[in-house]
Amino acid sequence: MTEVEPNDGPTSVLDLGAFVGELTVEDDAASDDVALEGLEQELQDCKTDDVVAMILSKGTKLRDYTKDVENNLRQIELDSIEDYIKESDNLVSLHDQIHDCDTILTQMEKLLSGFQAEIGSISSDIKVLQEKSMDMGLKLKNRKAAESKLAKFVEDIIIPPRMIDIIVDGEVNEEYMITLEILSKKLKYVETDTMVKTSKALNDVQPELEKLRQKAVSKVFDFIVQKLNALRKPKTNVQILQQSVLLKYKYVILFLKEHGKEVYLEVRAAYIDTMNKVLSTKIRAYIQALEKLQLDIATSSDLIGIDTRSTSLFLRGREPLKKPFFCFCFGRKDKHSQDIFFCDEFFGEQSMFYDIFAGPFSVVDEHLNTILPNCFDAIGLMLMIRIIYQHQLIMSRRRIPCLDSYLDKVNISLWPRFKMVFDMHLNSLRNANVRTLWEDDVHPHYVMRRYAEFTASLIQLNVDYGDGQLELNMERLRMAIDDLLVKLAKLFQKPKSQTVFLINNYDMTIAEAGSEGGKIQMYFEELLKSNTAIYVEELLAEHFSDLIKFVKTRASEDPSSSSERPITVTEVEPIVKDFASRWKAAIELMHNDVITSFSNFLCGMEILRAALTQLLLYYTRLSDCMKRIAGGSALNKDLVSISSIMYEIRKYSRTF
């Protein structure tokens, strides 16, 4: 094997083939057994190995390097053996210690094994104890449950001596009712519990419970009947007795209902009979008292359009309207309707109300059926209709519908009667004898006063109701009275008297209707306005006819125009001088005329002021016309100043 000489310069690439190529088979006999297959690949892989690359870079042969490595390993082995020999004593001591530890651990293993066996035995014992404890707990729970049921059974079925003493000998009071509750629970218990029915103890207890039940039923029956009898006593305040006395013992009724059904029905029937008679008596007495307050009942002849000046109900003003004959018998009915609350709370039955009030209703129906066919008071009938409606609203807000059907029945009977009486009034106006009714008096006619009061009352009764049917009927009545009034006015010979008559009647009707007259009031206000304008012209024409005629016919003409008959001073002078000579006296006459003609002072003063204002307008137009007439200034000395007329108007205006 030849040695590769190193180059002068650094070797950039190592040639492994050069080293391998020097190897021969003879160099190593051991290599005969080595397969060289794959050697080339391994050599290629070693190119990248850092150690191999370092060895090759030094130029050392692989065999020599291998020998060095073997020598080094052998030396290291010898050094290690020498070190082990030096530490042999320590190793022997360590071995002995390990052996001792092993012995101790063996003993501990045996001891722990014994502990494990004992723990296993204890665990089994604990498990057994746990099972016994659970079994004992279950038994204890069952015994407690049995004890609780048995204690409840004994408590529910046993009859304490104290309870017997109270039921048999005690007074019916709060303690007695508490004892009744306990007795009721025991009776329900023995009747409903299946376990009790199969119990032998029931044979001993049930007869005693039955005796106590019978005694309690008998005793509370006597007690309640005694309290109910107190309701029949005169001057007894039924409501106070119900609320303050009977309601305290309402459990007594419940006890009878549950454990003495037959006796309960007797008590119920006794209460219904008692209250039926008591309320019937009270309502009958109430009706009789109202009849004593009744002053007049309208008859078939008390109609708006009939001449009944000597006996007329209407001439007595509003007195009949203040004291309607029967309508208020419903006015306090809601006080008695409080009984429905008592029936519900004391007996637990609202239906009893109808049984209790069957008698009072029959008393009211009897009286109503007697009075209604002979009732000709339309205002009273409408007042009853409105009162019934108000009571229905009150009871609806209180959610008490028990009287709805009865009140509807009464209402149905009232409306046809009201319509019939109203139509009688209407026909009395349509068929009135104008000659018989007429009086030579311009003041409000008594028929119109009847109409005004009648209508005003109906208007008041229709406020907040808006009854369209009633409004339609009043409109028909208004048309009839208006037609009759015009006919009566035409019987006056003087047009002025006709107008004054109409104004007085219209004004009176408006005053009666008040601020809630609605369409009727507006209609008569328009008539009053138009007739006032007519009267003003008639009044002025009576005192200043020439002035008015001239102003209406000639004042608007142009004096300088070339008309056939131009306005001249000669034509105007008599009018101016006549006015200047008597205008104050004429106004005074107008004032006196108004005062005596109109019943309503304020209405008369308004009419006078309107007349004076119109007079001022006429005279102003006359003055303006004179300024346009040739030579008209010559009459200035005779003209009355506008300020003077204004002063006079203000003087009369101060009176109102």
Backbone shape: elongated
Question: Uncertain runs with pLDDT below 50, 5 residues or more?
Answer: 1-32, 310-338
Largest sheet: none
Radius of gyration using CA atoms only: 66 Å
- What is the helix tally? 28
> What is the chain-wise order of helices and strands?
HHHHHHHHHHHHHHHHHHHHHHHHHHHH
Which class best fits the helix and strand makeup?
mainly alpha
- Distance linking N and C termini: 166 Å
**Hey, roughly how much beta strand do the residues contain?**
under 5%
Features:
protein transport; disordered N terminus; Vps52_C; 656 residues; single chain; Vps52_CC; elongated; 28 helices; mainly alpha; transport; Vacuolar protein sorting-associated protein 52 A
Blueprint of the fold:
Layout lengths: L15 H6 L17 H8 L3 H9 L3 H25 L1 H70 L3 H9 L4 H19 L1 H4 L3 H31 L6 H7 L5 H10 L1 H33 L25 H4 L10 H4 L2 H9 L4 H5 L1 H14 L6 H20 L6 H27 L3 H4 L8 H17 L5 H23 L4 H19 L4 H26 L1 H9 L15 H29 L3 H28 L13 H12 L3
What is the structure about, briefly put?
The chain is built from 28 helices and no strands. It has helices at 16-21, 39-46, 50-58, 62-86, 88-157, 161-169, 174-192, 194-197, 201-231, 238-244, 250-259, 261-293, 319-322, 333-336, 339-347, 352-356, 358-371, 378-397, 404-430, 434-437, 446-462, 468-490, 495-513, 518-543, 545-553, 569-597, 601-628, 642-653. The termini are far apart.
